[in-house]
Amino acid sequence: MGATAGVVWGRAEQQDFRSRVRGTLLGAAVGDALGAPVDRMTGDEIREACGPDGVVDLVAAYGRRGAVTHLTQLALFSVDGLIRAQVRRDTGAWHPPTDLHRAYLRWATTQRDWGPDERRAEDGWLAREEWLYARRDPTRALLMGLGDQRMGTLEAPKNPDAAGPEAVARSAPFGLLVGWEPQLVVQLAVECAAQTHGHPTACLAAGGYAAVVHALLRGEALEGAVQRALALLAARVGHDPVSDALRLALGAVRQGMPGPAVVEELGGGGESAQVLGAAVYCALVAEDVRHGLRLAVNHGGPSAATGVLTGGLLGALHGETALPPGWLVELEGRPTILELADDFAMEMTQGPALHNPAGASPGWLSRYPRA
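^ that's the sequence the OP posted. Answer follows.
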């Protein structure tokens, strides 16, 4: 697997890219925090718990407002794995799925250990962030898929019947690889999904989501980004469930006022393609980020995953300054997310100044070891 370089980064381009990287990661995390307290409640249960308008603001989950779930945790380890892959490329060891698998195993360790005290230096800085050791209802497919050292592949996937949205929800970072050709972004997302969710629909939904984010980062409007993803998916065997879900989302935009019933019809089944379609719909009809995220979580279904995907899309489209500041200030782990986002943006835009085959910044290698 390779990538194309050739992106020329002026100062304005670097600033815009960093804003969109921050927006993608923070937006997804805010969507997670908004949806987590009502995840998989029915619409009636949400209104009973939160009032007649449902979720309109952050609500406490896991003992605090702004708490995130395992979906955000794993997305952050996706970013960490991508940076580590770039650093390891200097050694001639260039296989990003393996580097992502190592990152996901580092996350899996956080779910077994009490805290970061025993982590090795080669685990890097993210694995030593204490707040990431909170266990936030990870699914059986995730724990089983990462329960041993064997890496799932497309030929021998882990959990071949798992079609839930968890792998899709950690795939936005692949779309941030703006220097890669789109088909390689899709391939990486698909291969990494198979490490925990081996059902073809889950893998292709992850690829489709990454493709949409990638097109947004390259300046496409959202509908155009979805159309580009559909074109990329059309070349892949078994794409119909994902392509159909995206087309249903595009069609639903033109069918009356947006509301929870439409979102539930699109995504209430809870499988990866359905949740992706619901999130695309919410992002397309959103008047602003706040409106889109409220729509994404106020339905009977996987509110956290729908919020994550919707927030990632809106953040990628509009950048960090479009996110509601009142929600950001209460977001769990915000300093870590910002630090990781900025490191990713620095790696993508200025990587050769940080490390190359002839040498590397000691500080950068301490943060992202080649081991």
